[in-house]
Design a protein that fits this description.
Blueprint: H1 13-44, H2 62-69, E1 75-80, H3 88-101, E2 105-110, H4 116-125, E3 135-140, E4 143-148, H5 149-152, E5 153-155, H6 157-164, E6 173-176, H7 178-190, E7 196-200, H8 218-227, E8 231-235, E9 250-254, H9 262-273, E10 277-281, H10 293-298, E11 302-303, E12 308-311, E13 321-323, E14 325-326, H11 333-338, E15 342-344, E16 351-352, E17 364-370, E18 375-378, E19 380-382, E20 385-387, E21 395-397, E22 400-407, E23 420-425, H12 441-452, E24 464-465, H13 475-505
Parallel strand pairs: 1-2, 7-8, 7-9, 9-10, 10-23
Antiparallel strand pairs: 1-3, 3-4, 5-6, 6-24, 11-16, 12-18, 13-15, 14-17, 17-22, 18-21, 19-20, 22-23
Helix pairs in contact: 2-7
C-alpha cells in the first residue's frame, strides 16, 4: 500500500513578497557593484590584455613602455588612413595599445575617402600637401612628426627577388614597423631637446632645396624636418671666424666637389673636437679630386681612397651596387633584422684605418656596409670611367662602402657634449630625390641621423611579423563556392526547417 505525505503548502503571500524584494535588492546591489567596479577600472586605467587571435602578438618593448610613461604633455595623433587599407588594422591596433597605457594621447581617425573635408583640413593644418594620404601625424607643443605608410611596411624578400627576376608576383607584407616608428615619433615630439642641423654649402654640394631627380636633396631634407623633427639651416664656413654654431649638433656635408680652405677644415676639426656629429656623403664624380676632407677624416680613423667599389654579383649597370651585407654596428641593426638592401648608383670605397696605423687614443671606426664576397675595387679612373687595375685593385672580396666612427669626450674640452660621431658614405647620389626611394635607402638615411644624434628609438625596436593568408581558387571553384554560399546554405536551412515542421505535424 502506497502512502502519500501531506502536500506542501504554498508560502504565505507576505513571505513570497519578502523573498521577491530580497532577490531584487540583491540583484540591484550586484549590478551597482559591477558598475562601480567597471568605472573604477576605467578611471584607474587598470588593464588586462590577452591575445585571443592565436597570432602570438608580441608585447610592447621596454623602450616603448618607458617612452609612454615619460609623456607629460598632451599628444595629438591624427590617423589619415583609408579604413579598407591593409595596414589600417595594424595601425589602429597598436595605437589602441598605446592609448590604454597613456591617457595623454588624443587619437583622431580620419578616413579620407569617407570624410574628404576633414582630411583636407588636417592636411592644411599639418602642411602635408594635397596628395598626402595614408599617414599618421604626431603633434605636441608645436612639434610635428609624420609617419607614412611606406615607413610602416616590410615586404617579402622572396617576392621582391621573384619580381626582380621577371616574374609577375604580388608583393606581400612581411612585417609591420608601427611600434618602431610610432615610439620614435612620440620621443621626437615630447622630448624637450630641439635638435639643430647645419647643411654645408660652398663646395659644390647637392642643393638641399632642389627637386631635381638625381642631384637634388629636397626629399632628404624634408625627411629630416618633417619626420625627424630637425631644424636645418644652411651654413657657409668660408670667410667666417665663428665656425660651426655652438647650437648645431649635426653637420651634413653632402657631396662636395671643390676643395676646402684650410680655415674651413680647422672649423670642422674644432666642431668634432667639441663633440659634434658629422654626416659626410662623398660625391662619386669627385673621386679624382681631393677636397681636403680626406685628410681630416684620416685623423678620425676613416680612409677614403681614390677608387670605386664594385660588385660582380649584385649589380644592374656594372657601376652600381645593391648591398645586402651589413656590419655589426648598432646603426645597422634594423636593416639586418629586416634583411634589407641598399642601392648605390656609383659607390666609392670608404674603409676604417688599418689597426696597425691607429694611435692609442684613436677613434673607433667600424664598417657599416660591404659589397658581397664578389666585390672588387676600381682605381683606374679616367674621363668619368672606372676600370680595374690588376696592379692596384683586388677582386673577390667584400669592399667597404660606408663607415661609422665614434670617440668619447676629448680631454681639455669642457663642453659636456659627450661623444663625437661620424658617418661617411661612399655615394652621395644614394640620398638624391630619386634614389632615396630605392631599396631601403630612405630607412638608412633616417637611421644614420638617429644614431648620430643618439636617438635610439629607431634602432632598438624591431618589426612585428604580419601573417597574411590567401586562398587561391580557380574560376570553377569560385563559382562552386559562390553557389554554395548563396544557394546551398540557405536552401539547406529551409529544407531542415521543412523537415522539422513535417515531424511536428505528424
Amino acid at each position: 500500500m502506497e502512502m502519500n505525505g501531506p502536500e506542501p503548502q504554498p508560502a504565505p503571500p507576505g513571505r513570497r513578497r519578502a523573498g521577491t524584494l530580497v532577490s531584487v535588492a540583491v540583484s540591484v546591489i550586484a549590478a551597482v557593484a559591477i558598475f562601480a567596479a567597471l568605472n573604477y577600472l576605467a578611471v584607474t586605467r587598470t588593464v588586462w590584455r590577452r591575445d585571443l587571435s592565436g597570432s602570438g602578438s608580441r608585447p610592447l618593448s621596454p623602450l616603448t613602455l618607458q617612452t609612454l610613461a615619460s609623456i607629460t604633455n598632451d599628444v595629438n595623433v591624427t590617423v589619415l588612413f583609408r579604413a579598407d587599407s591593409g595596414l589600417y588594422p595594424h595601425v589602429d591596433r597598436i595605437l589602441r595599445e598605446y592609448s590604454l597605457l597613456q591617457r595623454r594621447l588624443n587619437i583622431r581617425q580620419i578616413d579620407y575617402l569617407r570624410s574628404p573635408g576633414a582630411a583636407e583640413l588636417a592636411k592644411v593644418q599639418y602642411k602635408l600637401g594635397t596628395i598626402a594620404n595614408d599617414v599618421v601625424v604626431f603633434e605636441s607643443g608645436g612639434r610635428q612628426f609624420v609617419v607614412t605608410a611606406a615607413d610602416l611596411t616590410i615586404y617579402s624578400n622572396e617576392d621582391l627577388k621573384r619580381l626582380m627576376g621577371g616574374e609577375q608576383v604580388e608583393i606581400r607584407r612581411a612585417g609591420f614597423r608601427g611600434e618602431e616608428r610610432f615610439t620614435a615619433a612620440l620621443a621626437a615630439v615630447t622630448e624637450g631637446t630641439t635638435y639643430r642641423a647645419a647643411y654645408l654649402q660652398g663646395h659644390g654640394e647637392h642643393p638641399g632645396d632642389s627637386d631635381e631627380s638625381v642631384m637634388g636633396y629636397a626629399r632628404f631634407n624634408s625627411l629630416l624636418v618633417n619626420e625627424r623633427n630637425l631644424v636645418i639651416e644652411p651654413l657657409k664656413l668660408a670667410g667666417t671666424t665663428n665656425g660651426v654654431p655652438d647650437a648645431c649638433q649635426l653637420l651634413i656635408i653632402a657631396g662636395p666637389t671643390a676643395p676646402f680652405l684650410a680655415s674651413e677644415l680647422a672649423h670642422l676639426e674644432a666642431f668634432l673636437q667639441r663633440g659634434g656629429s658629422l654626416l659626410v656623403l662623398l660625391h662619386p664624380h669627385a673621386v679624382a679630386r681631393r677636397t681636403g676632407l680626406e685628410d681630416l677624416l684620416v685623423r678620425w680613423s676613416i680612409v677614403c681612397p681614390a677608387m670605386y667599389g664594385g660588385d660582380s654579383q649584385f649589380t644592374y649597370t656594372t657601376l652600381d651596387v645593391q648591398s645586402k651585407s651589413f656590419g655589426l654596428h648598432p646603426l645597422m641593426a634594423p636593416l639586418r633584422r629586416e634583411e634589407g638592401s641598399l642601392y648605390f648608383p656609383l659607390p666609392r670605397v670608404v674603409s676604417p684605418m688599418p689597426a696597425d696605423r691607429l694611435g692609442a687614443d684613436a677613434p673607433k671606426a667600424e664598417v657599416l656596409i660591404y659589397t658581397s664576397d664578389q666585390g672588387l675595387t676600381k682605381s683606374a679612373v679616367a674621363d668619368g670611367n672606372a676600370g680595374f687595375d690588376p696592379a692596384r685593385d683586388r677582386r673577390g672580396i667584400p669592399v667597404p662602402l660606408a663607415v661609422a666612427a665614434e670617440k668619447g669626450g676629448v680631454a681639455g674640452v669642457a663642453t659636456g657634449r659627450g661623444t663625437t660621431r661620424i658617418v661617411v658614405i661612399g655615394d652621395s647620389v644614394m640620398f638624391g630625390n630619386k634614389t632615396l626611394g630605392d631599396a631601403n635607402n630612405r630607412d638608412f638615411a633616417a637611421l644614420c641621423v638617429s644614431w648620430l644624434l643618439d636617438r635610439p628609438q629607431s634602432l632598438a625596436i624591431g618589426p612585428r611579423p604580419i601573417d597574411e593568408f590567401r586562398l587561391n581558387l580557380t574560376a570553377a571553384q569560385l563559382r562552386t563556392l559562390r553557389w554554395t554560399l548563396l544557394g546551398g546554405l540557405p536552401g539547406g536551412v529551409l529544407a531542415l526547417g521543412w523537415l522539422v515542421w513535417l515531424r511536428r505535424r505528424a
